[in-house]
Design brief:
single chain, alpha/beta, four-stranded mixed β-sheet, 11 helices, about 30% helix
Length: about 350
């Protein structure tokens, strides 16, 4: 597949490092880790996916604390391709700054924003969706890629699809974005066949995104364009920018006025939101074995047990008679929980922060 003319890939690389603690930390978030056993970090795999479409037209936006690690993992990034946020200001500021930088270089450019910490095994199917999304975006629409739900998840937001867009292969209008539902509503959504998971992937002309942002948040849009025009003002302007997610700032209000489209994505996708989803991504255990292992399997010893073990600390880990267990040894900390309680790991991080244990968070 050849590169899309005038297309730039934007990779927001951020994260608090709370849901996969102690593997992931604030100083070394999950996008810097190999969590699939591929030998490539999630960030590297993201660049691998988008490079055939964007070539060297890539902008990675990350926290100042992660610049060196990102540069080490992505040595091919050109000058100016790595943008450091002085402090987190949520997704709109990060993606919007990249859009403003691209707009200054090419006012007609189309950008595609794809998070650095997602897992998409079928890269070709993903790229086919992006190609269609870029074509739709040239007409001034904000386009998202909606993932076909595999179950009534309460952990994702949803996109309600409307009628098909004329002249497009699969794209449809977006009726509305819906926040994370409870289990009953999620099941009702799936029964209609009209809803897709919102994976936070957006394809849009850089200028269109900033013009839409200016409509509802003019000071934020103006601030981002001012930084792009004079990068020396980053430290001055950045702390004044509104902290808001791109969904709330642009996607939801733009859907209300009918300028958002969705390209249905039928490929597998996961944002590895907890250890339960991580376990599901790892290879199934062999005959007579019950544990999925992230790391050196020779260090794991099990009897009548199922679940996930990661012996990153280099020590042997033994599990006896436990079902759906999670054991994570990072060397300086050990987590023991269950797959069912995996979402509660962030509460441990909150406790550690309250105790001032920044060395562990």
């Amino acid at each position: 597949m050849s590169a899309i003319p005038g297309f730039w890939a934007v990779i927001p690389a951020g994260g608090a490092g709370t849901r996969l603690w102690p593997l992931s930390r604030a100083g070394h978030p999950k996008f810097l880790h190999d969590l699939t056993g591929s030998g490539r970090s999630l960030l590297q795999e993201t660049l691998d996916r988008v490079s055939p479409l964007a070539g060297e037209s890539v902008v990675v936006v990350t926290g100042a604390a992660h610049v060196d690690a990102v540069r080490e993992q992505l040595p091919s990034l050109g000058a100016g391709a790595l943008v450091a946020e002085p402090a987190p200001r949520d997704s709109m500021a990060a993606i919007g700054l990249a859009a403003a930088i691209v707009e200054a270089r090419d006012p007609e450019a189309v950008i595609g924003s794809f998070a650095a910490d997602h897992v998409i095994p079928d890269a070709e199917a993903f790229r086919a969706c992006v190609v269609e999304a870029a074509e739709v975006a040239r007409d001034g629409r904000l386009v998202t890629i909606g993932i076909e739900p595999t179950h009534p998840s309460t952990g994702f937001g949803y996109i309600q699809m409307g009628r098909a867009l004329s002249g497009s292969t699969t794209a449809r209008r977006v009726r509305q974005f819906v926040e994370k539902p409870d289990a009953r509503r999620a099941a009702a959504y799936l029964s209609t066949g009209e809803f897709r998971w919102n994976a936070g992937m957006f394809v849009v002309r850089a200028a269109t995104l900033l013009d839409l942002l200016h409509r509802w948040h003019p000071e934020l849009a103006s601030g981002l364009r001012a930084i792009a025009a004079d990068p020396s003002r980053l430290e001055e302007i950045w702390p004044t920018l509104e902290k808001i997610a791109i969904d709330h700032a642009v996607a939801e209000p733009a859907a209300d006025i009918g300028v958002v489209a969705v390209v249905p994505g039928d490929f597998a996708w996961d944002d590895i939101g907890d250890f339960a989803s991580l376990a599901a991504l790892l290879p199934e255990p062999g005959e007579g074995e019950g544990l999925r292992v992230l790391g050196d399997a020779s260090l794991v010893h099990a009897v009548d047990s199922t679940g996930l073990v990661s012996p990153r600390g280099g020590r042997p880990v033994a599990v006896v008679g436990l079902d759906d267990v999670v054991v994570i040894d990072s060397g300086d900390a050990v987590l023991v929980t269950t797959l069912q309680r995996a979402q509660d790991v962030k509460r441990i991080v909150e406790q550690l922060k309250e105790q001032g244990r920044t060395d562990l968070t």
